[in-house]
Amino acid sequence: MRVALVAESFLPHMNGVTHSLLKVLAHLRERGDEVLVIAPSSSWLDDEAPATVEGFPVYTLPSFPLSGYANVRLAAGSVVRIRRILARFAPDVVHLASPFVLGWRAVVAAQQLGIPTVSIYQTEVPAYAARYGFPWLENFLWQRVENIHDASTLTLAPSTFALRQLQSRGIQRVHLWRRGVDTARFSPDKRDDGWRATVAPEPETRIIGYVGRLAAEKQVEDLAALDAIPGTRLVIVGSGPSKDSLRRILPNAHFAGFQSGEDLARIVASFDLFVHPGESETFCQTIQESMASGVPVVAVGRGGPLDLVDPSHTGWIYQPGDLEGLRSAVLDLIGDDAKRRAFGRTACAAVQGRTWPVLCEQLLAYYDRAIAVQARVGRAVAGG
């Protein structure tokens, strides 16, 4: 199969979109498929993006940073330019990863060429508008989301919440495609008592962890409700534009910075409890990674966490905005070692089998379905 993969965000910037794409690319390489990646450059003049990934060429378009958030790049390049790139490569299918700006141009270009598209809904961009002080933009942003997915051959949503959200806005041809988790990398066996001692010297201290971007949409400031719980230490893993303000809001927390690979796996497995307060998560991969590490979860009851956290078995869900509920759920597990460990064991067992090879094979089946749908459309048009 020939696949053009159009990425709204890509290396060297690591986030949920990039992480998923790298897993898909590795799977396509193992199968022997041919792939072209189209992505924004990492800067306008000095492109740090790799020329190839998994042996596949990466075609970068000039980009500029989103104001106030340099790691979010908006790609330049017209529909005509993208159509020319796609026409030269002649893919069987175009995979649109979290499409919005570049993805919109790509879906139009693919339509013009008669190439099927599979759009991956991964970021609830309209919800960010109010978080960044532009609530009046939300309707406009939803219109863009609707236009992209209405134009796509298929749309894949990562959670039942996201699927229903898109369907409620009249978007058709939406299917569920979750995310895999590396259960070899993320494992309870990675727990590191030496690392724990560096952030919580008292052995009886319980570590409450968060992993993710430090940005407005993640609502990390809500963790102020947990920052001074006696006998605990809050650990924040990640980086982003809110880093400095969060250091002031969470004076007792340990900020571990951006972590990846084995270092991240070791830190996550060393948590006693994982928390995630963001209300705009379409999936929330870090919850799965924590569960695979044998760490129970307390998360807000909106979006992807509703599918991932099984209340009273693998963690607790609290209502959006209910910070007292967040604190109570954390206290319940921090104060009961036996319950917390039982939740952790159940959490680990719950994600076994959700491997990336399994999920990537599901994705390939959706590629085949999109190709079949487009072929039927082509025959219908040819037949008048």
Structure report:
By secondary structure, the protein is an alpha/beta fold. It has 2 domains: 2-180 and 355-382, Rossmann fold (3-Layer(aba) Sandwich), CATH 3.40.50.2000; 188-351, Rossmann fold (3-Layer(aba) Sandwich). Helices cover 41% and strands 20% of the residues. The chain is built from 14 helices and 16 strands. It has helices spanning 16-31, 79-89, 102-113, 125-131, 138-151, 160-168, 193-199, 243-249, 261-269, 285-292, 305-308, 323-334, 337-351, 356-382; strands at residues 2-7, 34-40, 52-53, 56-61, 63-66, 69-75, 93-97, 117-120, 154-157, 174-176, 206-211, 232-237, 254-257, 273-276, 297-300, 315-318. Strands 3-4-2-1-7-8-9-10 form an 8-stranded mixed beta sheet, sandwiched between helices. It has a 6-stranded parallel beta sheet with strand order 13-12-11-14-15-16, sandwiched between helices. Strand 12 (232-237), helix 8 (243-249) and strand 13 form a beta-alpha-beta unit. Helix 2 (79-89) packs across helix 3, helix 4 (125-131) packs antiparallel against helix 5 (138-151) and helix 10 packs across helix 13 (337-351). The chain starts with a strand and ends with a helix. The model has no long low-confidence stretch (mean pLDDT 93).
> In the CATH scheme, what's the topology name of the largest domain?
Rossmann fold
Shape: elongated
How far the N terminus sits from the C terminus, by CA atoms, comes to 29 Å
Largest sheet: 8 strands, mixed
- Total number of domains: 2
Specify the oligomeric state. single chain
Q: Residue-averaged pLDDT, rounded? A: 93
Which percent range describes the beta-strand content? Answer: 15-25%
For the biggest β-sheet, the strand order reads 3-4-2-1-7-8-9-10
